[in-house]
């Protein structure tokens, strides 16, 4: 049974999974289009409206509408509706699209603490600077509830990892001593909402980042597929805590057509892995064995250990050395 036939829907991350800085990750668009599963794009990036995200996906060749996009900005507005009265004044620290979502939900939107907002909604905006962060801090010190769309410390872009919303939130936390409630991943709510919209009974959460995509899917009680095309690399995954260990591990989205059982951590490809202390030794393999097979074998050894982190990786034999050399 392939991954595409084992599940009834895909809950897909965007940055680092489908695209990187707006550029499609090789194989991702083709795999999602060909697998035949309904998809919901679940993203922590709150800077763009769902329609804009859908248009970007369509430009890449994916059949996507605004209804197929679930952003952390949408989740943050839903969270605000749970704790604020209808029509209440909220300070939205984010893009125009985030402000519009709040207005559509019935809130009065402001950008100044002088209006005594009852809540601060903080989402990613490349234009955010000292003045905007200060208004948020003033409002929070004045008693406003602090809600963040997400707490991602970095944002994957074509040139590398840029400053994410979580890093901007950290400035406000440092200034106020108040930590926000986060609406985005790794909280499970976005995954539940996305699955409900698709009426999915057995969805698969797919992403590249351990502490958001994978942790969120696991928190939502779903199977997860980790792709190694974005933030979290092989060494990060080896040392992932139990709450961030994906059901399946793959190099990229083309794994949707692989047998699901072959993607699970465990001995494969003729590789053998053993953890002694903090040293992981990988050996064996055959001429046609792959680096990802070696990695899954290594994961089975690393994840079996209790409270032990891999500090050193030793490859024994030419095949194992070539395989491990491709890890990052």
Automatic annotation (TrEMBL):
GO terms for molecular function: phosphatase activity. It comes from the Bacteria. The keyword Hydrolase applies. Transmembrane segments: none annotated. GO terms for cellular component: cytoplasm. It comes from Corynebacterium hindlerae. This is HAD-IIA family hydrolase. The lineage of its organism: Bacteria, Bacillati, Actinomycetota, Actinomycetes, Mycobacteriales. InterPro entries: HAD-like_sf, HAD-SF_hydro_IA, HAD-SF_hydro_IIA, HAD_sf. Pfam families: Hydrolase_6, Hydrolase_like. Keywords: Hydrolase. Signal peptide: none annotated.
